[in-house]
Amino acid sequence: ETGVTQSPTHLIKTRGQQVTLRCSSQSGHNTVSWYQQALGQGPQFIFQYYREEENGRGNFPPRFSGLQFPNYSSELNVNALELDDSALYLCASSARRENSPLHFGNGTRLTVT
Amino acid sequence: GQQLNQSPQSMFIQEGEDVSMNCTSSNIFNTWLWYKQDPGEGPVLLIALYKAGELTSNGRLTAQFGITRKDSFLNISASIPSDVGIYFCAGQGPNIIQGAQKLVFGQGTRLTINP
Q1: CB of A43 within 8 Å of any CB in chain B?
Q2: Upstream peptide bond of A8 is cis (omega within 30 degrees of 0)
Q3: Burial level of B101, CB count in 10 A (0-12/13-18/19+)?
Q4: Which of the residues A84, A102, A103 would you substitute to probe the B interface, choosing the one with the greatest number of B C-beta atoms within 10 Å?
Q5: Tens of pLDDT along A44-76?
Q6: What residues form DSSP beta bridges with A19?
Q7: B105 → chain A, closest CA residue
Q8: Which one, A50, B2, B18, B44, has least CB within 10 Å?
Q9: What angle do CA B39, A38, B75 make, to 5 degrees?
Q10: Predicted confidence (pLDDT) at residue B94 exceeds the cutoff of 80
Q11: B41: chain A residues, CB-CB within 8 Å
């Protein structure tokens, strides 16, 4: 069974730039969620995708957007990067049924300078 | 953003000691989860709890889903060096029919073990 994989592992961007992070879900999972984890904090829910559509969103501005593809993989796009966007971005996948817990990837560490 | 109240924030213990941490919320959750995160890695699921009052064990780990559905605890017995890391509780709210499988996390408990 292949777990959740994310790329790249690390990324450095300049304020104002745009970034795309990628995620492959665990085999058998059809739902993908994205979380932002600032240093020393717990992860914060950004949004979730199911059937290639956004299905729930946390308190993040529209410059955070995403995509889900037919093979259930996903992208997180962030436009107009700000210094506070520096964080670990975690992707999690699950099956869309009751009692299906989220399984996380190892994240992408984004640094905005 | 919304977070659960997790305590303690950090623990320094001797190898072999038992550990207890807990999480409380002002909101009701349908599911409580406990994750462990090592440096440079994502959270790894330890225990999932689905019913109020449920007590579940996974090896040396034991967790309970509070009767009020607003709290949970995690115990680790006879700690060993590989238990070092950050432990997070997470609550999952509305079921998938009503909305996203959104998790709300605590701020974490950092466990340090002296050999």
Answers
A1: yes
A2: yes
A3: buried
A4: A102
A5: 999 999 989 998 899 999 999 999 999 999 999
A6: A78
A7: A42
A8: B18
A9: 55
A10: no
A11: 106-107
